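Bug #77: duplicate submission created two jobs. Keeping one. Sequence:
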Amino acid sequence: MFPAHVAEVAIASPDDTDRFRTAIGHAVNRWNSASAQRHQIVLMPSAPQHRTVDAERLDRSAQPTGIADRYDVFIAIFDPMRSDVAEVMGDVERAKRAGKLVLAWLVAESPSHGLSSDDQAWLDDVTQRLTREGVSPRYIGRGDAHFESRLQSAITADLTDTNLSALTECFERAASARQVAIYRTPVALLGPQTWAVTVVNHGTSLAVDLQVSVKAVDSEGNDLSTGVRRSNQAIADVFAKLRSGRWPDEHHPLIDPAGVLRTRRPAFLISRMDLLAAHSALDFPRWLRPNQHASALYSLEPNASLCVCIQFEDEAGEVWSKTNDAEPERVSPTSPGRGELRRTAATGE
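Kept job's structure:
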């Protein structure tokens, strides 16, 4: 037994991925046996019961939690016998934007083997498109009796110390980004459709350039343009409810009509002044210090649900986005020249 990060591996191809899955799975397992403990990373190929990449393409509703969000390592297989590479290239682009480790393998011989003009033109096109994405493809030859052995060699060659160090850093940065959390809590004291939206930085570093978007969706996830708005109760009415309403105990400051929180979550609005501040807040702040939170109250239409999206920059200058309880997704590489903003925010100048 040893501590390790588990990196899920996605396989994408214009063809049915199952014809590659077994061979790649065997190669990955052999790499785990030889190298997982040393690198403290275990590779887990996408299991057959997981939805394939092709299925996710057909179901566009899966995009927010698709391959770029769910997997850590992305293996793109390009086969000249299947000339349609646009969909796989789209997956490569999304995975790269999300900061995932992308490996690209060509089921073809190296150009030095004297290819036909058609195969050479296909390889040139695919290679150029991958190069523009910062991916260096590897030739793994045709699917003959030695194909699985060549896959093992490709994995060993591509999973270099540099790539694995970058993968570990991605795990650490994503773990830090997860510390910025969204909480949606009913505030029955001010009305059955009043909700508090709270963004909290549970981490140990600044979250800067914070942007918060709150919208309403129906049961199928469709936007409801008029489904939510900032709570606009008159301040006198809010004072009256705060004075006369039943105030819960300190462990459950906000309760739904049934008298309990729907889920056991941290409590932030623990006093009447907290609720008053959330009601009066003009907007969310542009940064959150460690262990700092900010709240605002919203009125939600019946049969609607809150969809809260945030975007923020971490201490390394990377920009992340997150929706409700989903995993954070990296939306840009490190932004240069942002350290001064973070230092200014840290010192409060």
